Amino acid sequence: MIQLRKILLFFLSVVSLGLHAQNKYKNWPDIIRKNDAAWFGTAEAKTIAENVLLYQRNIGGWPKNIQMQKQLSESEKQQLIALKNDEHEVTTDNGATSQEMLFMSRMYAQVKDERYKESFLRGLNYLLEAQYANGGWPQFYPLKKGYYTHITYNDNSMVNILIILKEISEQTDYYSIKPSKEIVEKTKKAFDKGIDCILKTQYKQNGILTAWCAQHDEVTLAPANARAFELASLSGFESAKIVLLLMSIEKPSPEIITAVKSAQAWFEKTKITNLEEKRVLNDAGKIIDKKMIPTTNAAPIWARFMDLETNEPFFCDRDGIRKKSLDQIGSERRNGYSWYSDAPKEVLKKYPEWAIKNGVKVGSKDTPAKKNDKVVLTVAQDGSGDFTKIQDAVYASPAFPYEKVVINIKNGVYNEKVRIPEWNTNLTLIGESKENTIITFDDNFKKINLGRNSTFYTYTVLVEGDDFSASNLTIKNTSGDHGQGIALSVVANRAKISNCTILGNQDTLYLSGKETKQYFKDCYIEGTTDFIFGSATALFENCIINSIKSSYITAASTPVGIPFGFVFKDCKLTANPEATAVYLGRPWRIYAKTVYLNCDMGKQIKPEGWENWSKPDAEKNSYYAEYNCKGEGFQPAKRVSWSHQLTKKEAEKYTAENILKDTTPNWFSK
């Protein structure tokens, strides 16, 4: 019985492992890259491997666009065996050969079948043999007549090859199959020749290096045509992966550094931020139409085809006639081709960190990329800085940096939604002047129209990255008194806002997070209803809090058990003339905490001070208090009975050190 139970448990474990390692993907490239390592040891993977071996030609490469996982009949297998010596249609286009080599490497890591190793090495030998003497690669090898003989960066073909050679020449663990020292040395030389070809084919526009074309003539290295709708042009898509490859090289030569700097400048110059692609799908999820929609502050995109001299985007149908916009070409090419790309965004994101590492100056005026252990970027609308939009500077900032990232913003009205993502920690925005450096947008609840939570999408500036600071800025929601419209939304921890003006109407300032700490100093904050709201612990020191109309200043939602909520110290509460009846606060959630200390309260503050928002439980659980305030609006004897007037001893605990206590000591004073 015991022996039977062991056999049963073993059987169940094998079945469980098999289920866990099942292939979940339909497309051949996904099967290779997305499956767990364990799957490559399954019977299913071995069956597919037999197909991959059959499709490989004796020259070492594979044809393209084959779904290798498709079950083959006996007659189909015999046909493939008969084609082994056929060298037509063997290519590196559309990922062919490079992806099959990766498959064989992942198979060999699990199953030490020498056929897999031999297949990989024949593929590598194919890549080495296919290289031109000038370092480039054709699209097909042996050569196929026509544009296929051009050096091809199209669809990242040559970059894919160079990445393979780089991994092997550096003897990394990416590929499980380790070639001989002789072959490793060949890959080093081939890689260096390929990089040299890249440097020589970078296009000069009026004497200035820019980017690359999808194809270059294999003899002259000049830009070259491919299909009728693929005219010689600068490519926003293919150039991105070329630059990322150059940026991956340790200890780059001066020539590589110049190439990267020049390409980055060209990407900045040619990005499109006023268009957004809209795709219309049928019931089967297939694209039936593409439209480019004018959009304010759209995420940056680049055209795939740009004029060699003017950088102007253009589009072609199968007649080869250039058009200025996507809607001018027929639906077959419009919907069946990728005309725009956001691939260069990755270059701009990684560039500052790469520049620091390699001692490169950032900016057209040689502003240091790193100064006093800080990454420094400049935004200026007149083009004198590194960027003309604040969001673009954020996109270019390094993720989770060790040092402070400072974005200096020149005077101007920046009409854009700005998001500081969770990975952009340690970031600082510094305006040239509070009065004239203005970030503004006009979203509100009705305009967003995304359901009951639309408020949270209305921000002008959203801060998600911890250790954020901002100074000398105006942040404004200009939608007017038309419902909820956030100017500044802070959901980050250890956020410091100083000498800033924050303007809106209802819900101007949203501060959130169960244990987040936020600090506002010397700020002017204005709104109508609940214009300072949320769950964060926030200290306001020496701020002016202005009510536009009779309503409520705060709507805290402090979580239960949190010692402090919103605390106002040495602040001045002012109001427009029409605001004559203003509450200090009401509870968005019943454990709300709000305290005013040493504040000057104008006559607009209602004698009762606080309101329960029709929540009787809030009177028992919320904590509303004042200490040592002054002004016509400070009438402690008339306050609601469930609020508090602190004693001196009770007030002593409301220090910045206590309120903003965090794992980073005294972060707010730095």
TrEMBL record:
Give any Gene Ontology cellular component: cell outer membrane
In short, the EC number is: 3.1.1.11
What Pfam families is this protein classified in?
Answer: Pec_lyase, Pectinesterase
Pathway field: Glycan metabolism; pectin degradation; 2-dehydro-3-deoxy-D-gluconate from pectin: step 1/5
Instruction: Please give a single GO biological process term from the UniProt record.
Output: cell wall modification
Q: Give the residues annotated as active site.
A: D530
Q: Which family does it belong to?
A: Belongs to the pectinesterase family.
Q: Which PANTHER family match?
A: ACYL-COA THIOESTER HYDROLASE YBHC-RELATED (PTHR31321), PECTINESTERASE 53-RELATED (PTHR31321:SF57)
Protein name from the UniProt record: Pectinesterase
What species is given as this protein's source? Flavobacterium saccharophilum
